[in-house]
Amino acid sequence: MGKFELMALPYAVEALEPVISKETIAFHHGKHLAAYVNNLNGLLPGSGFEESTLEEIVLKAEGGMLNNAGQILNHELYFGQFASPKADNKPVGKLAEAITRDFGSFEAFKEEFQKKGATLFGSGWVWLSADKDGKLVITQEANAANPIQKGLKPLLTFDVWEHAYYLDYQNRRPDHLAALWQIIDWEIVESRRSK
Ligand code: MN
Question: How remote is the CA of residue 101 from the centroid of ligand 1, in Å?
């Protein structure tokens, strides 16, 4: 029995179709994320991190522990932010106001976010985070990195590792990123912001 458990998906495996297929969700959650959980649990005994939270491990560990904990934290935020596709899906209320304040408009925000996802070389994640003053920022993080390592509060993320989209979109990462807006649960993003 390891300490960390594979998160349960808050929706059915087919709930995000056609934006993300059930096959991609099944592999991504049931194989890739599960492997990170198993790997981290295997590294815990004798590491000094047996009683630590994921966030503490990401902030303090190195090497394999950092990479596996980072991937678990990243994927929990990623899988936890989706809902079934909606037409004209966009943020409302205070979150919409903050996005307009810091990026000019929701359209300008989406354009910058997609561009930073499309141009991230290799594997990694593009993030929307809040800084210590509540200002919203977009960052590219390589491999398993998380914005908490920069003192930021992560709100929204797109996974640009090929395993996130290759079955459905092959090499067309920009098309995948453009489609993801349909399945963002903006109430969850706002709950992270206002926490
Ligand atoms: Mn992934």
Answer: 30
